Amino acid sequence: MHPLCRRLILPLTLIVAGCTQFPDLDATVPPAAVNAPFPTLVPLEPLLAANAAVVSDPEATTQSLQARVAALRNRARLLQVRPVIDTGTRARLRRALARAPG
Fold first, then answer.
1. Vertex 13 angle, CA 7 and 19, to 5°
2. What whole-number distance in Å separates Cα of residue 67 and Cα of residue 59?
């Protein structure tokens, strides 16, 4: 890219953005919300306590997840070794492919 073009990209982008018509957002707030009282402020600690860690025993959770990972890996290994279709189905598919034109 030409060096002059690189220097002009940012100013031109800002100029184009400055010409944008912004929507009138004042009319989007309903009158009930404009005249509503401010919400009541509550302490932060009870809210944080409500979202405390769900896991009570991290060690047991780690062991459980590791067992699941091992089981899934074993299942994947078995699926890779075992044929997907049986020999009868494979023979029937090959016969159908041999008869197919083209």
1. 140
2. 12
